[in-house]
Each structure stands twice: as structure tokens, then as C-alpha cells.
Design goal:
704 residues; alpha/beta; Rossmann fold; Dimethylsulfoxide Reductase, domain 2; Barwin-like endoglucanases; six-stranded mixed sheet; six-stranded mixed β-barrel; 25 helices; 29% helix; globular; binds ligand MGD; binds molybdenum atom
Length: 704
Amino acid sequence: MPVSISISPNVSFVKGAAKVRGACPHDCPDTCALVTTVENGVAVKVQGNPEHAQTGGVLCTKVSRYPERTYHPDRILQPLKRVGPKGSGQFEAVSWESALDEIAAQLKAIAQRDPQAIAPYSYAGTMGLVQSESIAARFFNKLGASLLDRTICSAAGGEGLTQTLGGKVGMKVEFFAEAKLILIWGSNSIASNLHFWRYAQEAKRQGAKIICIDPRKTETAEKCHEHIALRPGTDAALALGIMHELIVHDWLDHAYINAHTEGWPLLRERALLWNPERVAEVCGVPVEQVRSLARDYGQCFVNGQPAAIRLNYGMQRVRGGGNATRAVACLPALIGAWRHRAGGVLLSSSGMFPINRAALQRPDLLAGRQPRTINMVTIGDDLLRDSSPGFGPKIEALIVYNSNPVAVAPDSGKVVQGFAREDLFTVVLEHFQTDTADYADFILPATTQLEHWDVHGAYGHTDVLLNQPAIAPVGQARPNTEVFRGLAARMGYTEPCFADDDETLCRTAFSHPGGDRIDFNELLDKGFASLPVSDAPFAEGHFPTPSGKCEFFSARLQAQGLDGLPDHVPNYEVAGTSAGHPLAMISPPARNFLNSTFVNVKSLRDIEGEPVLEINAEDALARGITAGAVVRVFNQRGEYRVKAEVSKRARPGVVHGLGVWWRKFGLDGTNVNQLTSQHLTDLGRGPVFYDCMVEVQLDTSPSL
Ligand SMILES: Nc1nc2c(c(=O)[nH]1)N[C@H]1C(S)=C(S)[C@@H](COP(=O)(O)OP(=O)(O)OC[C@H]3O[C@@H](n4cnc5c(=O)[nH]c(N)nc54)[C@H](O)[C@@H]3O)O[C@H]1N2
Ligand SMILES: Nc1nc2c(c(=O)[nH]1)N[C@H]1C(S)=C(S)[C@@H](COP(=O)(O)OP(=O)(O)OC[C@H]3O[C@@H](n4cnc5c(=O)[nH]c(N)nc54)[C@H](O)[C@@H]3O)O[C@H]1N2
Ligand SMILES: [Mo]
């Protein structure tokens, strides 16, 4: 039964073609407003909405290819049931009725033993609130399934920011255009935050200096005035070094510090331990670069000019990621940068959205039960665990949606071993037969953003976006919501909330008992609505911390037995401590993919070429590696074969495996996560993808 869509007032007809307003669903700070052109029921073009300021009518290359992805010949168009051995990728088509009946029967049987043996696994294939956390969350709450700690991306930085500023809050992205100094810190903005880069370019035209802080000489770093290529995982040391210089030169806004911060004497003492020489040594950069960075930042205070920091999640995927975020987040208060609307820091704005999560997810359906929580990062180990008092029941069923864990989760040797368990019942809601779907017992065809309703917050701007379906579902695809409604009915769940339709859920997301915070009619009319956020939210303090101040010192962390101050926490794996693995490997995003999404879109894969390992000439020479040679990259967790690219983008001692390729496109059926570890960050229980030592050798195996 296809899900019907209603044509809404937001559809305008231009010369026979409909233009439908929507939102880009992807896990990207930009959350663009889309306009889809539909001819005879077919989406022929997806463009940026010119009326939406942050989108500015411009889309990235990959999302411009959204129709190619939607009508891709490999799209899964009907429910599939496994026929071959686990992981063989052999399936037969079955009806929705029989698939849902059989899945519900399996879940009922497991739930009778212990519903916590069933675990959801989902992340940000779509960031839409409705298709990610509404009926699905209600379903798992009612079932009493394991809870999921959604940590795979931003947990350390989010926690660091929350401890220091009080939440995922920061400056408004549009005001970067007026800054006089921009530090782009742990972000390849041209690749992963293109619409911010437009504002940075505007600032540059107005005379701003732009400095990039990133181990890799990215396309962004190349276009900045300066590039500080520090070692991975040393950002807190650099931030403490800036503080040291601000203190010794007295480039400090004492009035702001006195009025609006907490713990200054303690932070001052800590920062004075970090002279530029020590910082240069730890970060592996010239001492003069540390001094000049601090001078540039301090001079903004002296000259009354706004200094802005665009922090991104690249710098928090290491052991000390939470502390590093805290250290950087302290900087603006020291020079009173928050006084300017173009000053401060932006890591994520997601905490500024008044989302009514309780109404969407209905935690009351847990009815007092407190299921155990599974961390996304450690799914490899957790799938291989037996029942125990500490862990709870062995995981017997996994329901995966909006995620591709076999490709994106760390230590994938373990993840694959877990997914390959014959006694694990796995259901995957997907568009394509991903590496994860290969291991499914059932693959259920999901709709894409062009085919369903949704509503979106953002983490790189402060507008809410509505997505209306532009086309009918392709094949037999169904929205995630519809799949969980079908399962809920078969499980015998009769609560009316399981019958809420998707448009109602869009309204629920921003509903508020005291009156809605977002005018839904405005969303229907324009496709977006701006949050009422003041231009310089922390000019007068008022941080959303317990003290209302920027907390250099966190009593909350100290109460947990942790360091109350930010510090440099060295990586788990650093040169010298990881025997036989002297190179640090980072695996940042590829420009034309979105994590592992789009890897199967040929036109985009053609631009990326093939998986490569970028290695500096010096490190390549020492190993007899020439450009294009196949190398074996390995450590104690596994090995991965890939072509070497001898590249100026890599600094000595650091190699880059751009991600996240599907394993099946790799030379030996693996990807970089074969090497990454399941260690957790200092704060937030996040992943440490970029805290990973490896060795690289010419590959001599004849089999490739
Ligand atoms: N095109 C594209 N856009 C994306 C994504 C994608 O896969 N492709 N991914 C999306 C996702 S999931 C997210 S979370 C966001 C944010 O995405 P992020 O993953 O934060 O992406 P980048 O902005 O590319 O930031 C990574 C940068 O951090 C650098 N880096 C690595 N280690 C360190 C370190 O220790 N210190 C410092 N200073 N830098 C380091 C890397 O070299 C890289 O240039 O972007 C999203 N946008
Ligand atoms: N080595 C290394 N690993 C990394 C990273 C890294 O930088 N290096 N980055 C990490 C980060 S930041 C993140 S956020 C994670 C990302 O991990 P994931 O959130 O798993 O992201 P994707 O790989 O894009 O997989 C999303 C899947 O959801 C599917 N999907 C999209 N929309 C829908 C929908 O509406 N319904 C359903 N059912 N499915 C849908 C897509 O087809 C896609 O296969 O990866 C992490 N892994
Ligand atoms: Mo992410």
C-alpha cells in the first residue's frame, strides 16, 4: 500500500512544473532550504532556495545530485528477506505484510525474555526530527528496548561546550561576515560547511584575517592567510598557549572577565604553565606561530575589533576532545569577544532550538522502566558480549535506521564480527544495500527526503526548516514513521500517539504547552522560520550555565571527580607509546560524500576517485612508497589496503584516510575504520576516530 501524500499550499506551479520547498536532510551544519522541481510526478532538479539567507540559492555538489540518488537504479524498492548466509548480501523480495508480521513475531519472542535484548541503532542519515526521533522513539520506549547513546559524532564537543557555555549555543553564523579575525579550528569548511565559508569570504573581502588550525592542509587551509598544522589531539595545548600570551601581555578584557566568568584565578594559573615553547613542542608547530596566533587574537581586543572562532567537530574526535573544546570555548570571554555580534565562538547552535522532545519521543511510554543504554561507539564490543549482570542481556536483535554502522563505527573488524552473528536478528531500514544492509535479515525500503514530511532544526544556523514531500514514494518505500507504525500495530500497541501522521508530528516538534515557539503557518508559507535569537547573545553574560557565567572552572565536573579546569589531555595513542605504529592517522570527511552517504552515487564517486591514504613525501620516502602504490596500513586492530597519495596535504608523521568509503568499494573489502578504536573521549563518551596510530608499508601481497 503506497503512502499517499497531500499536495500542500506550499506548492507553486510554474509552467506545468511544481516547485516544492524542502530541507536538506543531511548531517551538515548548513541545513539548506531546498526547492525541488517536479515534472509529471518526477523530481527533475533540486536547488538551493534563494529566499533563505543562509542557503543563498546555492547547494553543494553532492546535494545537487539528490535526484540521481533518489532514482538510482540500485535503490531498494521493496522489502527484502535474507536467503543466503549472513553477510552474503543475498535477499528475496517479500511483501510488506509478511515482512512486518515476521519482524513483529521475532521481536515479541525476544521481548518476552527481555525487551532490552532489542536495540535500536540510528544516527543522522536524516537530521529530520520526525523521521529520526518520533514514532521510532515511541515504539522503542513502549517496547522497553535498550536505549541508545547517540555519541558517534559530537558528544565530546557538545559536553565540553555545555560545561563551559551552558549548552550548544554560540554566535550567529551570518555575523562571521563582519569579523576582523576568523579562526577556522578543526574544520574543513569548504568541504563540510560551505555556507559558512561564504560568510568567511565576505569577511576576507572586508579585510579580515583568516587562520586555519588543522593538521591537514585542506582546501580550506590553502585559502586562509595562515595555516597552523598542529599534531592531532593537541588543540587544548594551543588554546592554553594563546591564554598564556593574553595573560603575559595583558590583552585581557578584565571587566568582562570579572562580570561574566567563573574561575578566572584558577584558569590563569593553569594557563601560565603553557608558555609558547611548551605549546610548540606539544603541537609540533613553530613557536613563532603560537606567538603570532595569540597576538592576532589579543590585538582584536586592543583594537576593539571582533574576533570569531568557527570550531568544528574535527578537533574533538580524540581522547581529550571534550577538554579541547572547553579550552577553546574559554577564549572569547578572555578578550570580551562576545560583546560584538561578530565575536565569540560557534561550534553548534543546536541547543538554541526549542524542540519539544518529550512530545515527540514520549518517554512516559517507558512507564517507569529504566532500560540499559548501549553506546553507538562500542557496538563492536557490545554485539560480542554475552549476558552478564553488568551488561544485561546479550543483544539479540538490532533495528538499524538512518545509519550505516558497519562502515562508520570504529574498530570495524569487531563490528563485522558482531553483525555476522547467526543468532542476531537484524532489520535495516535503508535506501540502498549498504555494508550494514548486507548483514540484515530484513531490509525495508525507506523513503528519501523528497518523499516524506519532516521538520528540521540546525547546528550551523538558527532557522527551522520544513520539508514537504515533492514526489510520491518511489517503489514501495515507506517513511521510517510508517514502518514503526506498522510494527506498533502488530505488537498490539493501541496508544493514540502511534497513529499521529507525519504532518502532525512536524507540528508537535516545536509545539509548546504555553504557545508554540515557531509559527507553523510561516513554515508552510516560506519553508523556513528564524528563531528569535538576539544578535550578541552573551554580550551581557547570561550564559545558560548554572552560574549564568562562562564557566572556566566547572564545579559540576569537579563533583564528578574530574578536572574542573580544561587541560591538554594527550591522545590514547601517541608516537612512542604505540610500538611499531609511528604514524598518526586521521580520517576526515571527503568533500563529495556525506559520511558514508553518496558513496554509491557514481558521478560523485568519480570526483572522489578511489579511497586513498595521503602521506607526506618524507614518510613515503622512508618507506619506499611512491605515488599510486598500494600500501598496507595496519595497527594492533587490523589492516587496510589502499592506494597511497604522496601529498603536501599531509604533515610529517600524520597520514589521512579520507572517509567514509563503503567497505565494499575498498581494495580488500574494508575501510579506514578497520583501524580506529572503540576508546571513548574524556567527556561525553564519544568516539576517538582521529586518535589512532598506524604503520604503512608497501603492499607485497599478490592477491590484489
Ligand atoms: N562534504 C561533507 N560535509 C560534511 C560531512 C561529510 O562527510 N562530507 N560530515 C558532516 C558531519 S557528520 C559533521 S559532524 C560536520 C562536521 O564535520 P567534521 O567532521 O568536523 O568535518 P570537517 O569540518 O571537515 O572537520 C574535520 C577537520 O578537522 C581536522 N582535524 C582532524 N583532527 C584534528 C585535530 O586534532 N585538531 C584539529 N584542529 N583539526 C583536526 C581534519 O583534518 C578536517 O579537516 O560536517 C558535516 N559535513
Ligand atoms: N573514520 C571515521 N569514521 C567516522 C567519521 C570520521 O570522520 N572518520 N565520522 C563520524 C561521524 S561525524 C558521523 S556523524 C558518523 C555518521 O554515521 P551515520 O549517521 O551512520 O551516517 P551515514 O554513513 O551517512 O549513513 C546514514 C545512512 O542513513 C540512510 N538514510 C538516509 N535517510 C534515511 C531515511 O530517511 N530513512 C532511513 N531508514 N535511512 C536513511 C542513508 O542511506 C545512509 O546509508 O560517522 C562517523 N564515522
Ligand atoms: Mo558527524
